Amino acid sequence: MKKKYTVTDQVITKITGWIAVLVIIAISIWGIATLYGYYKFEQTNDAQVQEYVNPVISRAGGFIVAVKFEENQYVKKGDTLLIIDNQEYDLQQRQTEASLSQATAKLEVLGINEFTLEKDAAAAEAQIAANKAKLLKQQLDFDRYKKLFDEESATKQQMENIQATLDVNSSEYLVSKENFSASKSKVNDVRAEKVVAIAEINRLKALLLRHKLDLSYTVLRAPYNGRMGRRTVEVGQMIDAGAVLAFIVNNETDKWVVANYKETQIEHMQLGDSVEVIADAYPDQKFKGTIISLSPATGSSFSLLPPDNSTGNYVKIVQRVPVRIKLTDAKTETEKLKVGMNVNVFIPRKRHG
């Protein structure tokens, strides 16, 4: 018995046939386009957007008294981000200032003492000259009386008086020399104390600068124009020096892409080659860039535990080489790209021969 098809079956068969043809055509077009893409470009989807993301680190410890930013907030260079209680640092600075004032006053007193002792030393030196003159005069008198006494023209009593006076003048001369030496020693002692005092003043000045620096650390400011990231602190929290308090994304530097290409793909890549970048978040927009560097080693070589192929368990794995790509579009265009976004990178292949 001959099988008959209804009109509905014929229509369904016809539509199904056309759909199959369209699917085949679509798959063919997609396949050709994909093969053409692989033929024309070295491409990879193992790539991410990079930008400088730096931690905001406290250089002073204490209680946080104010937080001046919110997550994702834009900030300008110099904007206040955090304020730490500065009372202890302020007291340390005042104590050092007081010690510095005391040391400076001591130096002034030593300067006055030095001046006074120098005057005393000058007077002692003048007394030496006077006593020396008296001693010379008395020595001449003694010599004359000695001749007269030898000629029996002077009495023994006169000779003894002249001798006694000569001895007194000689002693006074020696005493004046000792007084001068002692005065000079006192001047030198004061000068030595001044050197110590000046050294102490310099130490206190350096310490004061340190305390002022510590005091300035209690106010954390934005190091550059950027956008705040994750915030991990709140008012009243006790922090230590070196604690990470937040993260900031640097808006003053350009973004770049790190594309991890297979080692078999980088043979003809050179610095300055043009690049096309398509972000997963914006598949309909192409971003332009240029190669600015190729890593000096594979990514695995920079890992914490690089693989050791000499252990005997060697399995050949195609390695990846990071390629750094600078985005050349205007900042208004690249602003929408965020750090860590996945992108697809296309580098035109260079044909030789």
UniProtKB/TrEMBL annotation:
<dbReference type="InterPro" id="IPR050739">
    <property type="entry name" value="MFP"/>
</dbReference>
<feature type="domain" description="p-hydroxybenzoic acid efflux pump subunit AaeA-like beta-barrel">
    <location>
        <begin position="257"/>
        <end position="347"/>
    </location>
</feature>
<dbReference type="InterPro" id="IPR058634">
    <property type="entry name" value="AaeA-lik-b-barrel"/>
</dbReference>
<keyword id="KW-1133">Transmembrane helix</keyword>
<feature type="domain" description="Multidrug resistance protein MdtA-like barrel-sandwich hybrid">
    <location>
        <begin position="56"/>
        <end position="249"/>
    </location>
</feature>
<keyword id="KW-0812">Transmembrane</keyword>
<feature type="transmembrane region" description="Helical">
    <location>
        <begin position="12"/>
        <end position="39"/>
    </location>
</feature>
<keyword id="KW-0472">Membrane</keyword>
<dbReference type="InterPro" id="IPR058625">
    <property type="entry name" value="MdtA-like_BSH"/>
</dbReference>
<protein>
    <submittedName>
        <fullName>HlyD family secretion protein</fullName>
    </submittedName>
</protein>
<dbReference type="Pfam" id="PF25963">
    <property type="entry name" value="Beta-barrel_AAEA"/>
</dbReference>
<dbReference type="Pfam" id="PF25917">
    <property type="entry name" value="BSH_RND"/>
</dbReference>
<dbReference type="GO" id="GO:0055085">
    <property type="term" value="P:transmembrane transport"/>
</dbReference>
<dbReference type="GO" id="GO:0016020">
    <property type="term" value="C:membrane"/>
</dbReference>
